[in-house]
Amino acid sequence: MPIKSYLAHPEEGKKEELIKAISQIKQCEVIPAENKNVLVVITETEDETQEIILTKKLESIQSLKLLALVSGFNSPKNN
Amino acid sequence: MFKSISSRRDFIKKMAKLSAITAAVSMFPGILFADEQEAGLPEGNFDWKKGPCRFCGVGCGILVGVDNGKAVAVKGDPNSSVNKGLLCVKGYHQTMCVQSSDRLTHALVKKNGSYVKTPLNEALDIVANKMKETIAQHGKDSVAMYTSGQSTIPEGYVASKLMKGAIGTNNLDCNARLCMASAVAGFLTTFGADEPMGCYEDIDHADYFITWGNNMAEMHPVLFSRMLEQKNKRGAKIIDFATRTSRSSTASNKSILFEPQTDLAVANAICYEIINNGWMNRKFVEDHINFSKGLTKMGYGTEDNYKFKDKPTKINFEDYKNFLEDYTPEKVSKYSKVSVKDIKYLAAIYGDPNKKVVSYWCMGMNQHTRGTWINNLVYNIHLLTGKISQPGNGPFSLTGQPSACGTAREVGTFTHKLPKGVVMNEKHRKLAAKIWKVPYERIPAKPTYHATEMFRAVDRGDIKFIWTQVTNPLVSLPKTSRYRPGMEKDSCFVVVSDVFPTPTSDVADVILPASWHIEKSGIYGNSERRTQHWDKMVEGPGETTPDAWMTIEVAKRMGYGELFPYSEENHVEEIYEEYTQFHEGAKHGMAPLEVLKKESGAIWPYVNGKSTQWRFNSKYDPACDNDKDFHFYGKPDGKAVIWQRPYEPAAESPDSEYPFWLNTGRVIEHWHTGSMTRRIPVLHKAMPNAYVEFHPEDATSLGIRDGENVKVSSRRGHCILPASINKRGLPTKGQVFVPFFDENMLINDVTLDAFCPISKEPDYKKCAVKVEKA
Predict the structure, then answer these.
(1) Is the per-residue pLDDT at B5 higher than 80?
(2) Residue range B68-127, pLDDT digits in tens
(3) Cβ of A76 under 8 Å from any chain B Cβ?
(4) Pairing verdict, β B709-713 and B107-111
(5) Of A40, A71, A77, which is closest to B24 when you measure between CB atoms?
(6) CA gap B149, B575 in Å, rounded
(7) Residues B451 and B503 in one domain
(8) Could you give the 3-state DSSP secondary structure of residue B501?
(9) What is the pLDDT of residue B29?
(10) Which residue from B minimizes the CA distance to A7?
(11) N or C: which end of chain B has fewer CB within 10 A?
């Protein structure tokens, strides 16, 4: 069950739009910076296939300029 | 122990969140995430063990979460007054490197050109026999040890005792020569006593922070965060004085750029302004200051066997004032490229009696062919104004390595040093001989090789055996294009003790598997004179062994067993007890071990159960006994020295053939030569390779695009790297910048091995290069 964190950089002037778009995805938690043009995004998926699908979904958001992976943890279901 | 899956996942999720927030804080100084930063981490079901961070000289307190014998998490120690629970991106991820698949777990001995896995006892026999045999054939000065500012205090201590006390050679130096020898020489020449007089609490009191060639946002991010907090909370101001626009510059209130090497002239111009505007603190100067000058036009040490000894001469205030006539803001502005207005602005900050000012610096001032001088000159500013040794007022030299102060400087793993004092001083040799229980005649009175000259001696064939510990000189030395082939020669037997394979271990005859940080007990000393102890937290793999114990085992095999009567289980404690005898007294007393075990470090001088936060100030320092407000007791007459030091050009400047300055340095993601951080996936992915930064106008005129491969060449060698334009840093026009962490892009093949003639610290910040499309 991968848990990953990213820094999401919005397109100029589209921070609010990006926050809204990511917040609607149920596997994502979003923490916007209060004073800079960047968001922290935490993802939690069932397996690596779901993770790849989710990453593609995130990358297809129009208001997203860059999605940079910060850390990835794999927590087995039965651990 | 039962752990619920939901609490474990919740913990991991919080770790992921914290990593991302930390990365964002590193990239955007001053960034705010409301309550998230305050929330921190849950306790989890781990056994949290305290210690100092493995990386930089700030010495943040960490708590390592251990689960089933494995380090699974790191968080900042909220009880540490250094970092108050905060860590940087390297700090949070530090333990991840120990799981690297290429970890050195067993000794390797080169046989017929291949490395053969060898029992550690057998490898230590080979090392001891080779050392003895070399001494028998070529004399004791044919063997050398090269250690580190990352060695623990016990590791440095036994290395010094083996080389100087047992064998009787001063062929011991360390990589701290490459990073803060100029700071040491600056302190000793000005104050007669090494290490900063203030502490990190200065940050909570200062009105202004002036950083001299110091990108603290990337190199000392936790301290920089503390400064930013004061900027936001109290309106404290940060002034960045540098040769390149960095993350520190953009987060500061003001960025002032200067032409490389001209910091010397600007510092003198500030002093000119202070005196000529009547801002000098006359009473302080009259009571506590002498004036001196030294030799000039000293050369740059680029030739083998270069020797220099300064000859200080006393001068008076009028002489000094006349000397400064050459450094009016108008004159200095012409070649420093700092405007007259900005020079006057800096001087006015220092000169304002109602403003508290701390100056910070690190490699920009230390890695300088006039490194001792520029340290002296910044002290001059603080001494002229009396802004020193008080909360929020003082010059503060930062270190780059976790125990550059504790081990290299205090234990003294330099050729000229002893645990107390220097080899040239008979009284100091006698004290060392007494504590070590060796004849004092055995400790030679003359220093031998400083780092650069040590590797030149290897290349010349004068040193025939060298043992390196906790360091990677074939990436970190200047002009590796000479020293790598030198180390590859058959004339020298090379022993490398390390945790991971490096370009240095690639040329070793014997590789010894060292324990990593938390796999052993240890003691470090940070930039603010804080000594910090930690207990072993996890078992290391295979036959990994602490460096101190491997040194002791070799010493025993060489017949010096009676000098090293320590037990394997408690050698750290036993060595510390012996070592602290050197520093007894009010001027440098060390905290007892039981205090270090209980607290998150203690600052020396530790007197009557109390750390001394501000030395030389009689309000805070019990060692002051001259019945005055300040006592610079490092000097026989209790007075500090203002030095007359001129501006002199760099060893090599751009010319028609090599038209660019090359500046080298570090990045936030990587620790020095990258041997640990490049094995931490998060950090490696964030910064996978080195690059060469250009000013956009230079890139345009050369037709170089971002990401395109570029060849950077000097008279010593070349290096091919991708161009970086308008990304992390912005060099001034006519300058390029390259970080040195990447062993696949060895920029030190290009750098120059010129050094400060007084401190012998090389200048990695200035040489001439040409750049072309690769």
Answers:
(1) no
(2) 888 888 888 989 999 988 888 899 889 989 889 999 999 999 999 999 999 999 999 999
(3) no
(4) unpaired
(5) A40
(6) 18
(7) yes
(8) coil
(9) 65
(10) B20
(11) N
Domain extent for B155: 107-179+402-567
Instruction: Name B701's Cβ contacts closer than 8 Å, sequence gap at least 6.
Output: none
Question: pLDDT category, B35, cuts 50, 70, 90?
Answer: low
Tens of pLDDT, residue by residue over B370-384, are 999 999 999 999 999
Task: Calculate mean pLDDT across residues B283-288.
Answer: 98
Instruction: Count residue pairs from A and B with Cβ separation < 8 A.
Output: 84
Collect all residues of chain A within an 8 Å Cβ-Cβ radius of residue B686.
68, 70
* DSSP single-letter state for residue B33: -
Do B247 and B263 belong together in one domain?
yes
Tell me the pLDDT tens digit for each residue of B129-170.
999 999 999 999 999 999 999 999 999 999 999 999 999 999
Is residue B579 a part of any domain in this protein? Answer: no
Taking any CB pair shorter than 8 Å as contact, residues of chain B touching chain A are 5, 8-9, 12-13, 15-17, 19-21, 23-24, 27-28, 30-34, 36, 93, 681-682, 685-686
Looking at the partner chain, which of A3, A36, A68 has a beta carbon nearest the beta carbon of B16?
A3
Annotated catalytic residue B27? no
Task: For residues B357 and B467, state if they share a domain.
Answer: no
Answer for the pair B129, B710: CB distance below 8 angstroms, yes or no: no
- What strand order describes the sheet that includes B208-212? B254-257, B237-242, B208-212, B357-361, B394-397
Structural domain boundaries of chain A?
2-74
For residues B154 and B51, membership in a common domain is answered with no
Closest partner CB to A36 (pick from B8, B31, B681): B31
Cα B250-B252-B256 angle, rounded to 5 deg:
85
Is B216 considered catalytic here? no
pLDDT band at B26 (very low <50, low <70, confident <90, very high): low
CATH class, A2-74 region = alpha beta
Angle at CA B38, nearest 5°, toward B33 and B39?
105
pLDDT at A78: 36
Residue A37: burial class (beta carbons within 10 Å; 0-12, 13-18, 19+): middle
Report chain B's C-alpha Rg in angstroms: 25
Q: Is B179 a catalytic residue?
A: yes
Q: Is A1 on the interface with B (CB under 8 A)?
A: yes
The fraction of chain B above a pLDDT of 70, given in percent, is 97
* Same domain membership, residue B116 and residue B69: no
Residues of A within 8 A of B681 (CB-CB) are 72
CATH number of the domain that residue B370 is part of:
3.40.228.10
Residue to substitute from B26, B28, B228, interface A, most A β-carbons within 10 A: B28
